[in-house]
Amino acid sequence: MNSFYITTPIYYVNDIPHLGTAYCTIAADVLARYERFLGKDVYFLTGTDEHGEKIQEAAEKKGTTPQKFTDEVSKHFRDTWEKLNITFDDFIRTTEDRHKKTVLNLIQKSLNKGDIYLGQYEGWYCVSDETFFTESQLVNGKTPDGKEVKKIKEENYFFKLSKYVPLLKEHIKKNPDFILPESKRNEVLSFLEEEIRDLSISRTTFNWGIPFPKNPKHVIYVWFDALTNYVSALDPLNNPKKFEKFWGTEKNPKAIHLVGKDILRFHAVYWPCFLMSVGLPLPKRIFAHGWWTIEGQKMSKSLGNTIEPIAFTEQYGQDAFRLFLFREFSMGHDGDFNLKSFKERSNADLANNLGNLVSRTLNLIDKNREGIVFDKPIDVNSDAAVLEIYNEFNKLCDLYKTTDVMEKFEFHKILTDVFKILNLVNKFIELKAPWHLAKDATKKEELAFVLNASAEAIRLSSLILSPFIPQTVNEILKRLGQEDSGISALKWGAGKKSKVTHGAPIFMRLQ
Ligand code: ME8
């Protein structure tokens, strides 16, 4: 079955969309668009995480009810992603019925298996991280990040995490690409070498959550509630076919969870163990991305230095923003977002390299060839520069089609290669100076060759770039008179004879 499932974390509604959440959502969008380009049936899920003490507190502070509060902020997330042209197929909210039913169903399965028991919890709890800390993990009475903790002693339900740790270790060792990047996989493996305690999975200190089966004094602890969204969105209770299609099977798992590095442990340890307990296959991959700083500083609400994605893209354009996110830093590493590099990148890649090539090529075709392009086969062996460009494209198209690079989020590798080839094409144009060839009636054939080769390079780079800068690529393909025909068009020589149009520069230089 040619299906593909990609998820983002579900975002807490006590914050609004910012650079970090936009980054993760856009990365998932790039992959979803890429898989659709390959012809797969894609399910791209995002959503909001709406239960828990800190949401309850945030609503109280605003003088409203948690439900009204979450309705409002969740809508704001959804609207933001729609405005950013994120092509999600589903948006799940943990306050929806379909989700609550699935959570209860899975908890019941785990209870039936004997993996959940009632015990006493005593420890330090940080509301803003929704995480427990042991005495020895605290630094000067606070979390290692300096956040407040409070002592909690209460009756909790516990999940027998320790029971599944040996199985999980074996799975991680057998499947080297289960957790990526490799450095993060190693971190998880060394965490699993430590003594793993059973997990507290319920609370009695607040009530904004899903009541525990047969004991409504307890609500289900947020992480078990939240993680289950990846399953509940596929509606396993009512639509097992849909579930199997996108979740996959043990032999052929489908789900790729993209998460920030701070929440890797929940996804790479707790979630798989819970899935094993309820008898569901594990996801195919969990990829942890790095964190952004802004102008060298940690992004924070109190510093007021977060980037608001709608305002930013209205000023600078969605595609320039999307490209920058993946062009300079590989996704497993942290990156710094600064306006100077952003502008330099946009000018170099989009205005000068790609934009200039498109303008020159289409103008010349329009003026000197009655707008006709791809009317003759391009004999790549007749010119060393074109042969090099052709060979580079062949390598890159093969790499791109394998899915290995894109599904491991090595986006910057692909982007580096595309812009390297576009540089070669610009050099080739400089060297051939088609504007001189156009003045010489005996050079018509050579002019056709140069412009067709350049147009072919633009067409192929556009197809490869289409998940990253979709609006720009649409415009280029339209001007080239090519419809977006998917993966079959991704080979040298597949451009269809057509008439080009040219218009305003596709990218203006940023000052
Ligand atoms: O963690 N750079 O929700 P959240 C990059 N509800 N990414 C960043 C970032 C930065 N500066 N700051 C935050 C939750 N992020 C849970 C998830 S999933 C079942 C439940 C990322 O709203 C961060 O790594 O706090 C995380 O992936 C997401 O934004 C924030 O999620």
Structural description of this entry:
The chain is an alpha/beta fold and 511 residues long. The chain folds into 2 domains: 3-289, HUPs (Rossmann fold, 3-Layer(aba) Sandwich), CATH 3.40.50.620; 339-499, Isoleucyl-tRNA Synthetase, Domain 1 (Orthogonal Bundle). Helix content is 49%, strand content 16%. It has 19 helices and 18 strands. The strands form 5 sheets. Strands 3-2-1-12-13-7 form a 6-stranded parallel beta sheet, sandwiched between helices. A 4-stranded antiparallel beta sheet has the order 5-4-6-8, covered by helices on one side. Strands 9-11-10 form a 3-stranded antiparallel beta sheet. Helix 14 (384-401) packs antiparallel against helix 16 (411-432). The radius of gyration is 26 Å and the shape is elongated. The two termini are 49 Å apart. The mean pLDDT is 95. It binds ligand ME8.
**What is the spatial order of strands in the main beta sheet?**
3-2-1-12-13-7
Helix residue percentage? 40-55%
CATH-wise, what's the superfamily of the largest domain?
Answer: HUPs
Count up the domains: 2
Low-pLDDT stretches: none
Distance between the first and last residues' Cα: 49 Å
Instruction: Say how many strands there are.
Output: 18
CATH topology of the largest domain: Rossmann fold
Instruction: Tell me the β content.
Output: 15-25%
Name of the CATH first level of the largest domain: Alpha Beta
What class, by secondary structure content? alpha/beta
